[in-house]
Amino acid sequence: MQIEPDILANAAKLITLCKANGEMIATAESCTGGLIAGGLTAVDGSSSVVDCGFVTYSNEAKHGLIGVAQELLDKHGAVSEQVAIAMAEGALARAPLATMAIAVTGIAGPGGGSEEKPVGLVHLACAGNGHPALHRRRIYDGDRHAVRKATILEAYDMLSEMAGKSK
């Protein structure tokens, strides 16, 4: 499978940083459907940095696989800060070797948006052992591909920020 050059380059930089800092990554992905982990594992040497990934597209998967509280899903909806943070923390807790986890949940489009939660809205969260979770709310322009690509690159940026805190 062909991974876009900028995704591959950013993934390689992240892997180098994580190796230097002794970090292991877990992913919890909804709107990207596993593409964050896919970009990472396309890089040689990723096995020393990537622990596991959860694709939790449905609310049932978010709840059952990574422990997102049903009350959070009911109250805030899947595309929310609260759920993104719970996804990251849940993935970190369930990943045997991970020292940090990234989670993304959003509306990639072209349908599914609303006035309150438009197409392109993505919540990203990064949890790390011993560090407060990072959260970013973004509204990306473009089609489904553009939203997902921007999310992947932002996720790598957040993981790099978290990895940099350990040293």
From TrEMBL:
Pfam families to which the protein is assigned, alphabetical: CinA
InterPro entries, A to Z: CinA-like_C (IPR036653), CinA_C (IPR008136)
Domain CinA C-terminal: 11-162
SUPFAM superfamilies associated with the record: CinA-like (SSF142433)
Protein's name according to its UniProt entry: Damage-inducible protein CinA
Originating organism: Thalassospira xianhensis MCCC 1A02616
